[in-house]
Amino acid sequence: KNEVEQSPQNLTAQEGEFITINCSYSVGISALHWLQQHPGGGIVSLFMLSSGKKKHGRLIATINIQEKHSSLHITASHPRDSAVYICAARRNTDKLIFGTGTRLQVFP
Amino acid sequence: DAGVTQSPTHLIKTRGQQVTLRCSPKSGHDTVSWYQQALGQGPQFIFQYYEEEERQRGNFPDRFSGHQFPNYSSELNVNALLLGDSALYLCASSIGVQETQYFGPGTRLLVL
Question: Residue B98's pLDDT is what?
């Protein structure tokens, strides 16, 4: 079993839909990262959070430390949101452990 | 301000060869981490450099080694390449080991 699990693995949506990607982890962490990876490999860091909720534009990330669970929400999704979304848990030793990613496709 | 840069962008090697990948961190960043991402998988942590020393290491054999220079740039060296080393190699930089990491575009290595 992976230490960081994401669901779903693949997600398709119509433009405008509200999207939720989930991340569960089984290790002690100091922070959790949400990353976006576009075709070709470039990775962009979206959020780093250790408690509560963060919002940036149409993106919202939440984390529940007790339940070891985090969610990434995209409101009013757009085709340009199509990418792989990866959650990564920062261990207390500072090492990042990555989930396998959620491939999102948003159709017009 | 240039972000994290990596070179080369693509590389083809044959089994048994050695390869060196390079990473220049974002301006002001002093910590560099390297990751290997196989096709369809999430990145796997290789090691992290801070103050020119390897601070953390993932589950990779000694064939994988690195270096950090006084200007904080870093190299990843892989000896005796195997077919399974084919992957996207990502470098990420940060200010210290606790802060948000910024990723480079990656070097795509193909071992034939």
Answer: 67
